[in-house]
Design a protein that fits this description.
Number of domains: 1
Oligomer: single chain
CATH topology: Pnp Oxidase, Chain A
Length: about 210
């Protein structure tokens, strides 16, 4: 086994106290997200999305957050992808954001549901044309014989929609993650990190607890 135990960082930029937290976790998320943007972190909207099959077999991948509000967190994908199949079988998912420059992590748990088609179409039409064509060309998550097939499909789509608008594919659209829990993590020295967990209660309020690191 290759020994990489010497790779470690001591986190000491700042702390996180209960009185500094918003009672509304979305407001806390928005504050930290804006601070990540202001710190010029590359692609602060990168997030890990964890899904599981109906029998509990997990998988995780990186996607891009494209919008958020009190209704949840939105990303877009191919509805024929493996992630979409897992969401269909088990809509309970988890998200995580990690901004190493700020020594911060946010975790979100919730239920995924498709956004309305009109919302998917509005976003799709705002994408670069190459991305629109790529959504038509790529049979996401399916086995392909080689890259040449993808490039051929892209050229076919380029010719098909030459001079006109690229329409929204039936197999492409957005998901909204409706949160039921959040965790905000701030790195601290000696691995005594600050962790605060928000849990949505039956009466629609957020219970906030400090967790041991």
């Amino acid at each position: 086994m290759k020994d990489i135990s010497h790779l470690r960082e001591e986190y000491a930029r700042m702390g996180l106290n209960r009185h500094e937290l918003h009672n509304d976790p979305l407001k806390q998320f928005d504050l930290w997200f804006q601070q990540a943007v202001d710190a010029e972190i590359a692609e602060p909207n990168v997030m890990n999305l964890a899904t599981a099959t109906a029998d509990g077999s997990p998988s995780i991948r990186t996607v891009l957050l494209k919008g958020y509000d009190h209704d949840g967190f939105v990303f877009y994908t191919n509805y024929a992808s493996s992630k979409a199949a897992e969401i269909s079988a088990n809509p309970q998912v988890a998200l995580s954001f990690f901004w190493i420059q700020l020594e911060r992590q946010i975790r979100v748990w919730g239920r995924a549901e498709k956004v309305p088609q009109a919302q998917s179409e509005a976003y799709f039409l705002s994408r670069p044309r190459g991305s629109q064509l790529g959504a038509w060309a790529s049979p996401q998550s399916q086995s392909v014989a080689g890259r040449e097939l993808l490039e051929t499909r892209l050229e076919e789509m380029t010719q098909k929609y030459a001079g006109g608008e690229v329409p929204l594919p039936d197999h492409w659209g957005g998901y909204r993650i409706i949160p039921s829990a959040y965790e905000f993590w701030q790195g601290r020295p000696n691995r005594l990190h600050d962790r605060f967990h928000y849990q949505l209660t039956d009466d629609g309020q957020w219970d906030i607890q400090r967790l041991a690191p």
